[in-house]
Design a protein that fits this description.
There is one protein chain. The protein has 428 residues and is an alpha+beta fold. It contains ten helices and twelve strands. It has three domains: 100 residues, Beta-Lactamase (2-Layer Sandwich); 84 residues, Orthogonal Bundle (Helix Hairpins); 154 residues, Histidine kinase-like ATPase, C-terminal domain (Heat Shock Protein 90, 2-Layer Sandwich). Helices cover 53% and strands 20% of the residues. The strands form three sheets. Strands 2-1-5-4-3 form a five-stranded antiparallel beta sheet. Helix 9 packs antiparallel against helix 10. The radius of gyration is 53 Å and the shape is rod-shaped. The termini are far apart. The structure holds adenosine-5'-diphosphate. The site of adenosine-5'-diphosphate has 22 residues, from helix 9 and helix 10.
Length: 428
């Protein structure tokens, strides 16, 4: 009896334990089901995400067979998922098989990013892609395949190629232009050499011609004058006028030749720079102009003039031309000219220069003629009251530029002119 009751109690305990285990198992089954549902949900989310992705994503097994092919892969490559899954990667053309094998091997070892590859779509059209991969392994760590993600970079590639083409075209153009420029430069320096030598020749010719012409002209003028003096009483009025005109023409011609000679000499003569008193140079010029000054009653005044380092034989020519013009192109009153000088710093070179000015009360120069008057043979008034050959200012300009300076004029028609020229001060 006692034995029976002990047995019953043991059985009841065991039953209790069994019930507890069943309840635990039921609990476990319940939790497993929940986990499975969560897993299924995650899987669903993952698939939705992959399908919604704008990036073409495919999953390949270790041999390269397609296991998964998302929607973006369908639009990118043209093959539908059901055509691609189960087969070998359809986007790899025959000539890219070796490259694909290499990528496959590397992708199974570790992630790859941004590899640029070329593939063909189902319709045969080419496509440029940027490929990134990630290997997939099972819970035991065994690699079971890999995911490949493709970004269509055809537009960027096209733009890059276009840029490359433009760049090459630009380089080609630059090369062409540089060579054209070089050729033009070579031609130019050849021309300038030829020009220089022809200029030298011309200068020599002008010098020789004017030098050789002087003597016969002088003889003509002198003989005509003597003839006139000796036979004046025997000549009728008309013949005397012809002969006087001929003498005038010969004198004009002589002056012209003298001017030309002076001009050509300024280009050929060696410069001799030394301590030069500009006041003495002005005295020389005024001495040469003495008869003109006397005839016209011109008054020439001056400020204190400097000593500078320049060619002493050239400075009187400049003063003589400028003051000669101031007297020649005078207005209604008696001619007046004033010479002054002041020291300045040349803004271009930073060196000290003497700026001379010759101011007159003459007829003035219209603004549009301010530059042309320095060209040879350029005259604003000709013959009659204002004789000349249009060589004086061109000679001044040439001398001054050879001495390292420049010349300009400030004037207003009818209100007189101021000619400014500067020369390097040197080591006065
Ligand atoms: P030329 O005196 O022989 O005519 P220049 O070369 O000395 O030649 O001068 C050129 C021209 O510039 C002159 O014909 C004249 O028209 C003008 N010119 C020069 N200096 C003056 C001046 N001081 N006043 C007015 N015009 C001038």
């Amino acid at each position: 009896m006692e034995k029976d009751s002990q047995l019953n109690s043991d059985l009841a305990d065991e039953l209790d334990v069994a019930r507890k285990r069943i309840s635990q198992l039921e609990d476990l089954v319940g939790r497993c089901a929940a986990t499975e549902e969560t897993l299924l949900q995650s899987n669903e989310i993952l698939h939705t995400l992959i399908d919604a992705s704008p990036v073409a994503v495919i999953n390949l097994d270790p041999q390269g067979r397609v296991l998964m092919w998302n929607k973006a892969a369908e639009t990118t490559f043209g093959w539908q998922a059901n055509e691609a899954i189960g087969s070998f990667n359809p986007i790899v053309p025959e000539d890219r098989k070796v490259e694909f094998e290499k990528i496959r091997e590397l992708a199974m070892q570790g992630p790859l990013t941004g590899i640029e590859i070329k593939r063909r779509k189902k319709d045969g059209s080419p496509i440029d892609l940027s490929l990134s991969t990630a290997a997939i392994s099972d819970p035991k760590g065994v690699i079971t395949g890999y995911i490949a993600m493709f970004l269509d970079i055809s537009a960027r590639k096209k733009a890059e190629e276009e840029l490359e083409r433009s760049h090459s075209r630009l380089e080609e153009l630059v090369r062409e232009r540089t060579s054209e420029l070089r050729q033009a430069n070579e031609k130019l320096s050849k021309y300038s050499e030829e020009l220089e030598s022809s200029n030298r020749g011309l200068e020599q010719f002008a010098y020789m011609a004017s030098h050789d012409l002087q003597a016969p002209l002088l003889a003509i003028a002198t003989n005509l004058k003597m003839f006139l003096r000796r036979y004046r009483e025997k000549l009728d009025e008309g013949t005397e006028k012809f002969l006087s005109d001929a003498v005038d023409s010969a004198i004009r011609m002589q002056n012209f030749i003298r001017g030309l000679l002076a001009y050509s000499r300024t280009g050929t003569r060696e410069l001799e720079l030394k301590r030069t008193d500009s006041a003495l140079a002005l005295d020389t010029a005024l001495g040469n102009l003495a008869s003109m000054i006397k005839e016209t009653g011109a008054v020439i005044t001056r400020d204190k003039l400097p000593v500078l380092h320049t060619d002493p034989s050239q400075l009187p020519h400049i003063f003589q031309n400028l003051i000669g013009n101031a007297i020649k192109f005078h207005g209604n009153g008696p001619p007046r000219a004033h010479v002054s000088a002041n020291k300045q710093t040349d803004p271009g070179t930073g060196k000290k220069v003497w700026v001379f000015s010759v101011k007159d009360n003459g007829i003035g120069i219209p603004p549009e003629a301010k530059d042309v008057i320095f060209d040879i043979f350029k005259r604003l008034k000709s013959g009659g009251r204002y004789p000349g050959a249009g060589i004086g200012l061109a000679t001044c300009k040439r001398i001054i530029e050879r001495l390292g300076g420049s010349i300009r004029v400030e004037s207003e028609a009818g209100k007189g002119s101021v000619f400014y020229f500067h020369l390097p001060a040197g080591d006065e």
